[in-house]
Structure formats: structure tokens, C-alpha cells
Amino acid sequence: MSTPARTVLVTGSAKRLGREIALALARAGWQVAVHYRGSAAEARQTVADCESHGVAAAAFAADLADESAVRALLPRVVAHFGRADAVVNSAALFEHDSAASFSYATMERHLRSNTGAAIVLAQALHSHVQERAGTGAVINLLDQKLWNQNPDFLSYTLSKAALEAANTMLALALAPQVRVVGVAPGLTLTSDYLTPEKFQALHRLSPLGRSSTPEDICSAVKFALDNSSITGTTLLVDGGQHLQRFERDFSMM
After folding, report:
1. Which of 143, 166, 144, 184 is nearest to 232 (CA)?
2. For 82-117, what is each residue's pLDDT tens digit?
3. Within a domain: residue 1?
4. Assigned domain for 121 exists
5. Cα 207 off chain centre by
């Protein structure tokens, strides 16, 4: 009898790093649930590109700040594909604030989208795999700056620090059915904050002379999904950037 294709939900996979992870897992034979919030056209393209690798894929819209929408997300994936085996929490809200501009509202937005949603999806996956007497894995995308902190993006950093702590608690609470692993990239993709030249210069600031590439992160995610002995820890995939002291966030340098 053939083994059913594994299904993964990748949040924020319409664009950027989430898209690269979705495509890498499709190439590895995973069925892919492409999550997006407002980027419907980009999500449809990611679905088509995943399907070009001979696997099933579908797009699912949800606002990760809306608890009801998040609680409904994995059941929608299961209803479509018949099963879910993993969740990769790649989506993240990344708004600038500092100690001077911090507010409850900004902190809450980041905690809801970056921390709460990942925990609820892990909870949902655990319930699902328990029902079918299976196993699963949750991969949480973190950030090397948790090990090399600076005062920029205070609420974002707090939300990722909370998620890193949740890795340990969830790994204990959801075992043995679900493993929980963090992957912490360094500077991987450019943004509106950086010119291409500045990005290249900052990307080289690491002991290895290069930070992480999308391919590096995808490789780490696949490794974490496939290695059944890893849980409750984080893989830092950053060229060693967390070993160097940076006074500001890359986007502020």
C-alpha cells in the first residue's frame, strides 16, 4: 500500500520566505496548504508553482490576529486534504517600535499574530493527529536577534521571544504526538528598509562572511520536519550573526 502524501500548512506563504519554504516542501513531495491574509493573487501563484512539482496545493485566507479565524484554519486544511501532518509558522508582523514609542496596542498586535496564532495552530495540529493516532511537527520561524538583542522593534522582538519560550513548553505539552522546533534565520531577504547595496554589505557581516539564504532556511525546515528526534530546541541558521554584537537592528543600520 502506498503511503499517503504528507500535508503541511505554511503560514504567510504567498510571498517572501514563506513562499520559498512552501515551494521547497512541494519539491520534497509535501502537499501544501498556502496561507495568506490579503495577497490572494500571490497565493494563487504559489499554489500553481507548488502544483507544478506534482503535488496537491490550495490557498487558505485567514487573519492571524483573529483568534476565530486561526482556530478555523487547520480544520479547513484537513477538510480539503483529508489530513495535516505539519505546520510551519512563517508569517510575522514586523512593525517598528522602540522603548519610547511602545504601546499596549502595538505589543498586542504582534503577540496576537506572531505568538498566539502559532500556539493555537500547534494546539489544533495536536488534536488532529491524536484523533488519527498519528504524529506531527510544528516549525516556528524565530529570529537570530533573540540571541543578539538590540532596542529596535521592541514589540516584534517580545513576540518572538515569547514564541521561543513557547517552543519549550509546547514540546513538553504536546509530546509524543507533536514535535516543536524553532528555526532562527539571520538577515535573509532585503526589505523596504534596505537598498540592495546595503543588504549585501550587511549580509556579509557574520563569522562565515555570509548570513542565511532562503535555501539555507528551507533546508533547515526540511531537516527539522524529517528528523524525528528533534524537539524543544532552535536551529540558528544565520552564518553566526548571533555571535556578533549589533547595536541596532539591520534595518536601522
Report:
1. 166
2. 999 999 999 999 999 999 999 999 999 999 999 999
3. no
4. yes
5. 25
Q: Evaluate whether residue 184 is within a structural domain.
A: yes
Question: What is the domain extent for residue 183?
Answer: 7-252
Number of domains in the chain: 1
CATH number at residue 39: 3.40.50.720
Residue 45 lies in a domain: yes
CA 243 and chain centroid, separation: 22
State how far the Cα of 162 lies from the Cα of 249, in Å rounded to an integer. Answer: 19
- Report residue 140: phi and psi, to 5°: -105, 120
- The grid coordinates of residue 120 equal 493555537
Q: ∠ CA(117), CA(41), CA(216), 5° rounding?
A: 60
Those residues whose C-beta lies under 8 Å from the C-beta of residue 126, and which sit 6 or more positions away, are: 136, 174, 177, 178
Q: What is the pLDDT of residues 132-179, one digit of tens each?
A: 999 999 999 999 999 999 999 999 999 999 999 999 999 999 999 999
**Structure pTM?**
0.95
Instruction: Confirm if 70 and 64 have CB atoms less than 8 A apart.
Output: yes
